[in-house]
Amino acid sequence: MWRDLAPVGRSAASGGYFRQPFGSAERECQAWFLEQCAARDLDVRTDGNGNTVAWWHPHPAAFSIVHEDRVAGSADQGSDLRGLSVEGGVVTGSHLDSVLDGGAYDGPLGVVSALAAVDLLRERGIRPGRPIGVATFAEEEGSRFGLACLGSRLLTGATTPEQARELRDRDGVPLLDAMAGAGVEPDLGRSSLLDGIDCFVELHVEQGRDLVHRDAPVGVASEIWPHGRYRFDFTGEANHAGSTRMEDRHDPMLTYATTVLTANEQARVLGQRATFGRVEAVPNGTNAVPSRVTAWLDARAETDAALADLVAGIDRLARERADRDGTGLAVTAESVSGAVGFAPDLAERIVAGRDWPVIPTQAGHDAGVLSAAGIPSAMLFVRNPTGVSHSPAESAGVEDCLAGVEALADVLAGLAR
Known about the structure:
By secondary structure, the chain is α/β, with parallel strands linked by helices. It has helices at residues 2-5, 24-39, 62-72, 108-123, 150-156, 161-165, 175-181, 210-214, 252-270, 304-325, 344-351, 366-372, 398-416; strands at residues 43-46, 52-56, 89-95, 132-137, 197-205, 218-224, 227-235, 239-240, 273-282, 288-289, 292-300, 328-337, 340-341, 358-361, 377-382. Helices cover 35% and strands 22% of the residues.
């Protein structure tokens, strides 16, 4: 499966991936996923948000068998998970889109591992007592339409259809047009797919080096840090780069540059994260002082209060600099996700009797959106030897990936009984 996906959307120059939501490469990955589901005789369901869940339905006799086991309290594989109240479908999976020039593992590893876990459970002769679903969620990265986890946000109602209709990509293409062009019939909003998901477990490559330091191939998530994306619009006065004296300028690029340094300093002092990773200048000429600079801040912190303090501090210092430069500044919060603590009873049952560390993650995931919507959720991480993510250098070893499949299969076996 990994060999099939490896070349899709990969840049020959950088080795990175360009699988933009509803673009040709991402659609090719989705078509591959549907073929894999058909080969396993899974029941595929889709919604008008670009999400898909492929169900492995339980054996007809499994319900009575599991009920008898539960009453008797017999010890079988996954019995340490039996006390958790999960009465519907158990879903796993991830996403197939990527950031611009991204890595191979972020998202697709969770999808491939989910299919492999189903294969492994069947090899073990497991008959699930409740349906097991394999899911792919649309526009998880937010790299095209600027709103991370868009598919799962629409699925759960965290983002309204009205908000989604206003979304445009960098070329001005509306979300609805992009979806229709990809063969998705847009029907934005909370969908019936959500009704079948009573528990969600997402496997993901670790986006850091915590497991490397712990010398552990697999870990379990405890929480997701709160994070947000903020648009900074710096305005000034366009002018000639040669004839305009430095002291006569109202240069928004200067205000922006100082703000980048300020954000870096604030995040370091507070032990949080702040990144300006995207910038646009108008008129974007080499020999012109720009009239406008628009930049996007990605900010993350340990708590909601710490995130608010971090962004407020950057905003305040940026405005002070704008006053000195004779420029203007407007700050818009484009998306903010609060802290997500995964169901502690679920995490405890998953790690019971296993040597799997429980660690936080600073990256956002669909599992966090579903958890915030009240669906018991958990995450498994597979060790990333480089610790690098959102980059072609993202990596995972074959042995660790196979350990992740084994871990996911064990968890699903317990939850599905």
